[in-house]
Amino acid sequence: MSVLSDHIFPRFTILRLLALSGVLFASSAIANELVQLGEALFFDTNLSANRTQACASCHDPAAAFSDSRDNGISGAVSLGDDGESLGDRNAPTITYAMLIPVFGRDTHGEIAGGTFHDGRAASMLEQAGQPFTNPIEMALSDKGAVVKRVHENPAHADALKQHFGETIFDDTVKAFAAITESIVAFEQMPQFAPFDSKYDRYLRGEYKLSKQEEVGRKLFFSQLFNCHSCHLIDTREDQEYEAFSNHRYHNIGLPVNAAVRQENGLGSAHVDQGLLENPDIDDPLQAGKFRVPTLRNVAVTGPYMHNGIFRDLRTVVLYYNKFTLSNAESQTNPETGQPWGESEVPDTVNLDLLSQGQPISALQVGAIVEFLNALTDQRYEGLIDQ
Q: I need a labelling partner for 275 at 20 to 30 A (CA). Which of 36, 103, 189, 251 fits?
């Protein structure tokens, strides 16, 4: 890998994570106005080619800021503004996205951070602007077209001028940056990361975990299993503000989502190279790797994995037995009754990581899922099992 920046980030406190993910705004009237503008832009369907799609279309606040639409492929990937184009990757929740560090290397020299599944946007500020001009998403022709649509709305235009100056629209690049900055200001509000799940309330002494949740918590943090290797940034047990992701990249051997490929036109010959598709990466050993997602709100943001191939959270947990057991049951996808399928990028599967730890029994799977349910923000607890 020759072009990745040498930026090093330590094990952050939450405030340092927030600062590095984008922009932190002081509590003031000016900041509140910027947040209000960002919220208005986030929900504005006019900021797409056919005026049918907003940021909120794929990041619905009623679905923990994930895409709750079926889209003809069981919600695995998102539908574009034209009503026909389908992506190839699942739209992740943007709850707790503010915890993702900027793209770089962590203190152990591992590639980590960045947004989208392949880290191609180094920060939230970079990510916020890309869907506008993606031809299979909001599909505007260029940044100038985005700025023009924003300028069409007198309320948007006045707010941008008030915050960034009367001449902001004289420079397309600066105007576009102001638009993305406004959206990120909204995306960093407490509603995106309230830390009020049952688990967070348990840590504060406000909730007693059920027996199943407590068993699942102990299993999750246990060194006997391997959850901690990817889904904890602080491996000490019961730390507040845990992101439940170390933000690194791994190839865990996932197969192609054939149903998606059939519908989105990419076909069976296409290979999603994951991290290798990031323009800052040219190391073939990074092919097929995707950033570890947060587990916060995982119970209500399925389907799962970067390509939306699994519908049920229990299936996700059972999938890892594929690498620790050889019996027929462990080699069968319970959702299809068929073998799990071959890895899309077999040469870089991290077998050393995946084969660590003990197999997970059916009872243990149930307990772990109960603990994962307990990572759901309080406002979304009613969505579990719906």
A: 189
